Amino acid sequence: MPPSAEIGVFGGSGFYEWFAGAEPVTVTTPYGPPSAPIALADVGGRRVAFLPRHGPRHTIPAPFVNYRANLWAMHELGVRRIIGPSAVGGLQPDLHPGDLVICDQFIDRTSGRLDTYYPGPEVVHISAADPYCPELRALAGAVAQERALRFRPAGTVVVVQGPRFSTRAESRWYGRMGWDIVGMTQYPEVILARELEMCYLNLSLVTDYDAGVEGAPEVSAVQAQDVMRVLAANIARVRDLLATLIPIIPSTPSCNCQRSLEGARM
Prior knowledge:
The protein is an alpha/beta fold. The chain contains five helices and eleven strands, in the order E-E-E-E-H-E-E-E-H-E-E-H-E-H-E-H. The protein has one domain: 3-Layer(aba) Sandwich (Rossmann fold). The radius of gyration is 18 Å and the shape is globular. The termini are far apart.
């Protein structure tokens, strides 16, 4: 019987222990190799596929992640639900390091990323009005509330190209636009999942105040080592949330994510 899974998780440091004893599975895709072999394991009685989006040693910067291969590999294994945790900078003074945001919208500020499986001649206009799965978002919010986590049940992430962090001017602009957090990986990951008719949930862990948020405590410009320190201190809470969430994800979805191609083809 070929390897398979029903739920996929993209992540990095802090998640490897779930899959320490798992056999890695190499999946070939038409879009080149994924970021790493995929590890399969049981989490709460559910078969889960795990893939570190930046590679097993975090050697692939966000602009160079092969998002199409990563999502395609998950799909080939039978995954229909994707959970994409990510580390982000906060843009609003009431969002603090350690807070969790369950995104419902994104703003794309990237450039040059391969962001569709339909470059022609077949033309598909996928709806991105509500890019994140409402069913998974509601479940994640219920679990976060039950565990008394500091979280926001909705929020907008502005996705920047990277790998550099924002200038102070950019950070102020993003915050004044009303956007909540800034990250580098949500686009095109979430929209490629939608093109493959997979549900997608993002859990964004705030690790810093970006380049300085108006009204927030005075802090120096964000440094990568500071991000990793806060991430290491808080990732266990995200992992524990997933350990509770994954077993209660319904096998049959009540959302429309897995019918997203209906009416999308020209």
